[in-house]
Amino acid sequence: MVMEDSNFRVIIVGGSVAGLVFAHCLNRAGIEHLILEKGNEVAPDLGASIGIMPNGARILEQLGLHEKIEQCIEPMSISHIIFPDGLALESRYLQNIYERFGYSVAFLARAEFLRIAYELYPEKAKIITGKKVTEVNRCQGGICAVTDDGSVYQGSIIVGADGVHSRIRSEMWRIANKDSLGSILDEEKKSMTVEYACVFGISSGIKGLGDGEQINAFLDGAAVMMMQGKGDRVFWFIFKKLDQKYVYPDTPRFSMDDAEKLCREMKDVRLYRELCVDDLWRTKQTASMTALEEGLFKTWFYDRMVLLGDSVHKVSQSSLPGHRSCLPKPTTTATR
User: Fold this and answer.
1) Which residues are CB-contacts of 174 (< 8 A; sequence separation ≥ 6)?
2) Domain FAD-binding, which positions (predicted)?
3) Does residue 50 lie in a domain region?
4) Which residue from 89, 135, 206, 215 has the least number of CB within 10 angstroms?
């Protein structure tokens, strides 16, 4: 159902997975909107991958995105689970998921997902790149986003889909503090923590994995997950428990040297059959390392500001729920 024309306008900050999916939802609902993306590209190749679960696939199909995405994925069918004591199990739960829900669990590069979401978005002029929002201010009849080049964009509400280091969340807190809610927010600001780091990447030419196979290797103080995707690509994650629990924003940052050091330390760790960590690192096309934030903020909106995705909730990625959990939120927000 398309809404009648009105002066209501949504400013989306962040051309992320959540941001672009939300834009598609608003477009379908006939709600005026604009996307401000700080990067110069909508779909940069940063080496990350995205997992699509049935709950997300159902939404993507309704938005007209799933058919194109299916061309880039290899459905997962078999999961091999390896425990620290050497016990190994084979599970067909991935096939069961497909049989019960009609959609497969699958992975593709995050850049591919963003490219498809952008290409199929019908009003590309509404996506403005190179616009880093630095400030949010109340203005007559709405709220304004100010970017680093001095541009000002006015809307009825601002939606922060700008990730775990969300500027919109910070601005929401700042404005709420001015409204005498500081004591409530001070405690909430400490609710996001970091206990794990992750090296993630995409490799190719790895022998020993079949199409649609997934490996979950649980080690002492670490875990490795890998999925055979389409086009001979393997998406992998190495999770490592840190020496202490950090409270955001005082959390560690990691470089490519840190990623290489960890993979070198674990290079001889056998994951499945003859496959070792070194096989992943040696054949990588791209890789990176990041801290894994975990937390759920209580304040999801204030005044004319709303948070989506990682800006408001971040869960352990050892089970890879990140992107699949961010897909239902834009649709729920759009319908309200």
Assistant:
1) none
2) 9-316
3) no
4) 89
- pLDDT at position 48 is 81
331: confidence class by pLDDT, cuts 50, 70, 90? low
Alpha carbon distance 328, 323 (integer Å): 10
Q: What is the pTM of this model?
A: 0.90
- Structural domain count, the chain: 2
Same domain, 206 and 282: yes
List the domain range (segments joined by +) for residue 223. 193-293
Maximum C-alpha span of the chain: 65
Q: Tell me whether strands 222-228 and 233-247 are parallel, antiparallel or unpaired.
A: antiparallel
DSSP element (H, E) containing 83? none
Amino acid in the structure at residue 154: Q
Supply the pLDDT for residue 323. 47
Residues 212-254: tens digit of each pLDDT? 999 999 999 999 999 999 988 999 999 999 999 999 999 999 9
CA 181 – CA 174 distance, rounded (Å): 10
Write the CB contacts of 130 (distance below 8 Å, at least 6 apart in sequence): 37, 38, 39, 40, 149
For residue 110, is it within any domain? no
